[in-house]
């Protein structure tokens, strides 16, 4: 009866659930440890985690030196189950937010005003994720449950997310609507990067205007142009990388030109050096004028002058 609702990955979750016996949903799901210090002094430590079969380590009696520490065990033991976790109303101001929401790795579940679960997410920064949901989907973010995962490795995060998901599916028979396959409401799409601009149609096409004029037109027709080494999606030097990073972190709508592109920007490096009278790359132009290279842009960014300069 669940099948039509479920994708492959959800089925996998259900399948893996089938091998797990929840003795009680309230109990910490993963750790069943028969302590060596218990009166029975049982020599066997057995444990299971959600994704793995149930290994068991046999220890010689009275030898308490473990050969290894199963890491996910420790996390799961500290990590609260979905139902154990109390939900909190999403704070509305940024200050309140920062004081109430952890900026740690973990999982979170978002509920709407009717207290219906909308989405269970996993993140490297709970506060930042919930905050971005709140900004983009205020009507769906009424309260949240958050679970910090102390060990920030990917496997423990996935494990934690799966445990909440499984618990919810187990109790309701449903996947949260926001986690249904194909629902892009909650998962931020990486912004599509613009393509780099090319100065010429190709190296072997005879230019009818001098390259210098093409550069001139390009920097005057576009508010911000960064001549960088490599493309904006894969800068080829640290300085270019930093330039792209700064422009993107400030949300600047800019054009980029790859000065290393010998096919479409052939001869650009030499011509641009003369045009701008600046010997190195990257070079950033704003409103048709050279601003400078990476250092100058970095300093403008640090002093908070970039936005003002762009408005001019
Ligand atoms: C206990 O186990 C450790 C690791 O397996 C081993 O190196 C050590 O010799 C053992 N000690 C005793 C008393 O058996
Ligand atoms: C995606 O999930 C949200 C709930 O968070 C729901 O309101 C919306 O209708 C869903 N969209 C689709 C296309 O299923
Ligand atoms: C649910 O949300 C998680 C976390 O963002 C996402 O990775 C997953 O694809 C979503 N859907 C399903 C079916 O798990």
TrEMBL record:
Keywords in alphabetical order: 2Fe-2S, Iron, Iron-sulfur, Metal-binding, Redox-active center, Signal
Leader sequence segment: 1-23
Entry's family note: Belongs to the glutaredoxin family. CGFS subfamily.
GO cellular component: mitochondrial matrix
Pfam families per the UniProt record, alphabetical: Glutaredoxin
Residue ranges constituting the Glutaredoxin domain according to the UniProt record: 224-291
Descriptive protein name: Glutaredoxin domain-containing protein
GO MF term list: 2 iron, 2 sulfur cluster binding; metal ion binding
Entries under Gene3D superfamilies matching the protein: Glutaredoxin (3.40.30.10)
């Amino acid at each position: 009866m669940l099948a039509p609702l479920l994708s492959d990955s959800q089925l996998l979750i259900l399948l893996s659930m089938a091998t797990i016996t929840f003795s009680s949903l309230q109990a910490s799901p993963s750790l069943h440890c028969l302590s060596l210090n218990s009166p029975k002094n049982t020599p066997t430590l057995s444990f299971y985690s959600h994704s793995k079969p149930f290994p068991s380590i046999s220890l010689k009696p009275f030898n308490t030196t473990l050969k290894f520490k199963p890491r996910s065990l420790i996390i799961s033991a500290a990590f609260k189950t979905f139902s154990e976790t109390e939900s909190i109303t999403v704070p509305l101001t940024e200050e309140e937010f920062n004081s109430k929401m952890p900026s740690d790795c973990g999982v979170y579940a978002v509920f709407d005003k009717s207290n219906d679960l909308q989405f269970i997410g996993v993140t490297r920064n709970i506060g930042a994720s919930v905050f971005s949901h709140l900004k983009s989907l205020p009507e769906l973010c009424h309260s949240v449950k958050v679970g910090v995962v102390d060990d920030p490795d990917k496997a423990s995060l996935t494990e934690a997310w799966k445990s909440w998901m499984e618990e919810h599916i187990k109790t309701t028979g449903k996947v949260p609507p926001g986690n249904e396959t194909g629902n892009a409401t909650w998962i931020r799409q990486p912004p599509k990067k613009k393509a780099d601009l090319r100065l010429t149609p190709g190296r072997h096409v005879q230019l009818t205007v001098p390259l210098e004029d093409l550069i001139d037109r390009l920097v005057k027709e576009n508010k911000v142009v960064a001549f960088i080494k490599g493309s904006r999606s894969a800068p080829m030097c640290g300085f270019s990388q930093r330039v792209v990073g700064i422009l993107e972190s400030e949300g600047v709508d800019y054009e980029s030109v790859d000065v290393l592109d010998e096919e479409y920007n052939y001869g650009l490096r030499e011509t641009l050096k003369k045009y701008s009278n600046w010997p190195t790359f990257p070079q950033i132009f704003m409103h048709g004028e050279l601003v400078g290279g990476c250092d100058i842009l970095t300093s403008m960014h640090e002093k908070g002058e970039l936005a003002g300069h762009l408005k001019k």
